[in-house]
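Data availability (excerpt). The following record was deposited with the supplementary files.
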Amino acid sequence: MTSLWTRTADPVQSQPWDGRRPDVVIVGAGITGLSTALLLARAGRDVAVVDAGEVAHLASGSNTGKLSLLQGSVLSTLRAHHPASLVRAYVDANRDGAQWLTAFATEAGVPFTRRTAYSYAQSAAGGKTVAAEMEAAREAGLPVHRMPPDPTLPFPVVDAVALDDQVAIDPYAVTAALARAAVEAGATLHTGIRVTGLRVVPHPVLETSAGFISARDVVLATGAPLTDRGLYFAKTRGLRSYAVAFDVDGEVPDGLYLSVDAPTRSLRSVTSSDGPDGGARLVVGGNGHPVGRSSSPRACVTDLIAWTREHIPGAEPVASWSAQDYESHDLIPFVGVMPRTLGRVRFATGFGKWGLSNGPAAALRIAAEVPRTPRRERPAWMNLISRRFTVPADLGRGGIENLRVGWEAASGWVGAQRRAVPVARPAEGDGVVVNRAGHPVGVSTVQGVTRAVNAVCPHLGGVLAWNDAEGSWDCPLHASRFTAAGLRIEGPAVCDLQRLPRVPGEVAAG
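Predicted structure:
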């Protein structure tokens, strides 16, 4: 599965690691990491960016390209348990991040369009959420307005709150432009370098596939931090969501739509001014779920296609993909110094699928705090968010999630014992967890090759689940993912799965 934005894009050129010791090493070549790199390089710091994959190869190149301060039901959910000042600080952070990114896009010549964003209800039951979102948004200083039902829309909208002057953009194009601008400013970019470890005494050192890399400061901009310091894997949850791009005859809705009730539906049109190919094209997203906890991710994509064809006859899918992001239990991203790193390692995680604004906001904060960088006046939101308190509702959500993690850990091991080898050879694109001498083994067939891997996540021992949309092994505990061959893709795990030999006769033809 390849996103609409990346399927025809040329990769950004990088260079081999040269063995030097930069001031700052940034791990992660997505929106957050590259925004930070550009800010620090322009401030005169010697910066290197490393990434195991290409630029924007995960979440930054796989979102829907909606840059909006109206984010479904986020603001009303926050306001239900937190003071108005914190909600306003969250909005101010996103506003600063969005303004910085659009100013950069204008400077770099990356086109985008201004649209109206809508948080809408698909049924009468969602009307209360729309009303709460409107109240929370107004209290936070956003000039929202109510949208009455529009019978011309091809999909059901019972009620909606709207915010004008939001942005639709090609997320890969702007991320690639950030990479090129950072290099022009003096940073270096090194893709294909995987980080597998970190130590901080006597100074920060990264263990990587290119050897040890030393720096004065380190920034982890990797979605899930590549270290368990601070236990942020237990303070967030990994979420996957899906998107399909369609060719459509005739007009498509012009706004940026996101439902506040289930099943989630996200829609935006793509034009020649905010997308890669132009023409009448529509992106429909939704059907999100915690990583590794869907019986069939492939069915999530199929459902989006069926829903779109029902409401927009003649829509033909041209690309489908999925993306992963991490949501904190209180919906506010974690940004700042990683605990127990002597102030030398900074990180950002928990953007809750709103990385196009939260990512640059995190970069602005990190760049303002990295030592030996020229100091500017800090906006009030940085201080307020950094001092936020955990309230009982946050603890409750976190407790429920960690109970679910415990359940997934236990049920995964029990389930793995129910199916012993030998088993039939999985069909193309399918995988199954089986019991080999009491140990879970993942057997899958991808592109005609049947493989066996250790089906236990090397992070904290969760039994992996097969992702039949992406052809990957996903951990239902803390969202680590691996290819069919066992190579790590993302998540808090830092090593690959063990490849296992095929035992003669344990996988039958079929």
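Summary of structural features: The radius of gyration is 23 Å.
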